[in-house]
Design brief:
By secondary structure, the protein is of the alpha+beta class. It contains eleven helices and twelve strands. The chain has a five-stranded antiparallel sheet.
Amino acid sequence: MLRRLPYRVQIPLGLSLAVLLAAVLVTAITARVQAQNARRDTLSLLDRAVVLVIAQVRPLLAADDTWRVFSLLRDTAQLVPGADADLARLAILTPDGAVFAASDPVKLETGRQVLGEPWREQPLLTAMAIERRALLNRPDGSVVLIDPIRSEDGQTLGFVFTEVESAAFAPDWASLARTALIGIVLAVTVLGPLGWWVGKRMARPVGRLVAVIERIGRDDPGVLRADVPKTTDPELSRIGDAVAQLMGELERRKVAEERALSAERLAAVGKMTAAVAHEINNPLAGMLTATQTLRLHGGNEAIRLRTIDLLDRGLQQIRTTVAALLPQARIEDRPLEPGDLEDIVALVKSTADKHRAEIRVQVDVESALRVPSAPLRQVMLNLLLNALKAAGEHGVIAARLQADESRVRFCISNSGPVLSEDKFKSTLAAESGKDPRGFGLWVCQELASHLRGRFELDITETTQTCLLFEVPNREAPEGQT
């Protein structure tokens, strides 16, 4: 319960509790010391009383004056501590140990045999066995003294029997408690405000440290490190140094994160630039070839119209690619047509002629096409260029476009070295940003994911490399082109 309280409350309460425990401990020690001193003082007083009784009782025993002996014992017993509370009593015994007279005739009746008989369940010595004072300390703390009374010639005239009960030796608990209570009140009165002041003083730097720690993650680490309190206390100083070190680490981490973010942004910009350049350069190569065709055969109206239409579609593809970089722009794209594959083949024809490669085209469309033309033309162009590169000199490339009511599939194979599945995956991983020189296959994979389709290596073909691009035959999702 105490641990849940703040330091400014724990410290004064702890001091008050310490004062209380100290007062109780001092009171207990004082009571024990006083009990020992009271017992010693009581026994010393008994010695003087017994000496006085022996000196005065000798002539009375010689005269056999019982009444005067009783009066002497009654007056002398008042000097013994506890006699007024019936806790102490005196008796004169005869030489054989019987009661001659007593200060309390009720408990020590005249003629009662005492010596040699049990007294309060503890046997006493016989009269013949007592040569000097006999001291009997009983288990309950009471004391019995038996002193012989001798004449001047050494004869035993009798005995002085003295009994003091244990309660007579008890300290004055009321006085001790009153003194301890006064000491506790004074100590708490002085130490309470002092404890509150010390607790508040000690808790102030701790509270400032807590306030600084609570601001971690919201404020600048440099500002927080400057707000760490300075203190001469070694433990609080260690905590403050640890918090300051944490602020320094956070500040360095923040700088490192900013640098990493800047580098990541630069890498993203470079990656996007390379991808855009790749996607624009592909149709540009075919369009440059088309312009040469137009320049050489522009007089033929059919060739001129076909070439102009090809240039128009290539420029539309570039326009769509660039517009994809602008989130606020929305370009309406037409559905794919079977003739688009022929356009793409015409765009790459110059590249195929350089490699002396043969491109075989197959179109098998059974249903209306409802997919956007721009991404599919981009995929077909990328795959054709990659296939030409993989097939090499005098290679053969087979491009096949299939469609039904549920899906649109474009397959392309080449006669070059067979591409393994591991090599295909590593190429995709390299083109994803680690190798800025090529993005064709990676772009195809991204477009397949964008259109909720798939792009993979056809592992059923073992004699040649066959890449498969397949998407659902439906319109692009909302917000996508």
